Amino acid sequence: MKSAIEVNSEIGRLKSVLMHRPGKEIENVIPDTMKQMLFDDIPFQKIADKEHDYFTNLLRNHGVEVVYIEDLLEDILQKDDVRDDFESTYLNEHYYQGSSAEDIKQYFETLSIHDLVSTIYAGLRREKIHFTHPSLHDVAGTNAFDPFLLDPLPNAYFTRDPQASMGSGLTINHMTFEARRPESLITEYVMKYHPRFAGKINVWLDRYNDARIEGGDELVLNDHVVAIGCSQRTSTRSIEKLAHKLFEDPNSHFDTIVAVQIPHNHAMMHLDTVFTMVNYDQFTVYPGIMNGGKMNINILHPGKDNTINLEHRTSLPDTLKEVLGLSEIDLMETGNGDPVAAPREQWNDGSNNLAIAPGEVVTYDRNTVTIDLMRKHGITVHEIYSSELSRGRGGARCMSQPIIREPIEKN
Ligand SMILES: NC(=[NH2+])NCCC[C@H](N)C(=O)O
């Protein structure tokens, strides 16, 4: 069986990518809910969409198929039984049951599938529904002032995180924060019901496993090595679970996981905010994580009788050389390592590059120091606009979920 997902590196020429065009949800963030929504500001949707369209057009002009996940969701909801099941699960996960769920479903019936999907992303305002027998949960909300019965999904344009393609399959992720949990429910339904994927992929982890993991932490370095951040969003237990699955499932060819401990904070919530692979032997890295060569890195390998062997390392460059079989590597520091430019450009995702081919990346235009450095190191850099998109704390890699990349040459 040819898999509908083939991603065996971070850098192989990108052929197909899953994305989400920002909708009303990004303007449904308000100061009271911003923190809980994992935003630091409120983007202006009109400009954010222009910036996003510029990004997707650039990808298309480089031969990449851009697939919008919201379109796939619309496709599968055409079937009444899938629509009914999705709505019930969605509502149940938001604690609406019995007559309350029925009341909301009745409202959904009045919407076209397109508007239903927009509402799922944008959120459902309280005044739209008159509950016949409201429960306390239905009327009280989660904040003192809570205008939404179903919260918006402003982070949905960071399509990298709710799932992660890896080899011929993906992990469908148990997200850390409530604000992002519904996003991976959408992935689950799309993967289960869309003819493009149904029965044509391996699911390495599903979102019902009890350990947290997010795609920004999952980097496929080559067809047998994966790097995973131990971060605010990805727990050590989930890395071990994934290791068992990848090492024991005959459909997986991965035999090495590099678990990289990074600081647990909002600016660096995922490994890809501080580290990305941009060529066979070139990487961008935020110097703040290197800890003077005293990092906490563990290499996981399959042991005897389905056990896992751990080997501790402290140097990122040495570990990369070891697992990739390279004699030299080029680590380019965000903001060229300058004590002001580095943290500023890291904050605006200067380390978060999307490679569209080996040595060719897409990145935010505002990170001028990192861009100059990459160009000096021979990288082809395509700049995209970033005034509004960057306010959500994610860059070109975060906004894109590769589903097909061409294989890379073997070392
Ligand atoms: N892969 C990434 N770095 N994604 C960035 C996600 C940003 C988003 N606001 C969050 O906190 O979840």
UniProtKB/TrEMBL annotation:
One of its GO terms (molecular function) is arginine deiminase activity. One of its GO terms (biological process) is L-arginine deiminase pathway. The lineage of its organism: Bacteria, Bacillati, Bacillota, Bacilli, Lactobacillales. It comes from the Bacteria. NCBIfam families: PRK01388.1. The active site is at 398 (amidino-cysteine intermediate). InterPro entries: Arg_deiminase (IPR003876). This is Arginine deiminase. The gene is arcA. The keyword DNA damage does not apply. Belongs to the arginine deiminase family. PANTHER family: ARGININE DEIMINASE. Pathway: Amino-acid degradation; L-arginine degradation via ADI pathway; carbamoyl phosphate from L-arginine: step 1/2. One of its GO terms (cellular component) is cytoplasm. Keywords: Arginine metabolism, Cytoplasm, Hydrolase. Its EC number is 3.5.3.6. It is found in: Cytoplasm. It comes from Fructilactobacillus fructivorans. It catalyses: L-arginine + H2O = L-citrulline + NH4(+). Signal peptide: none annotated.
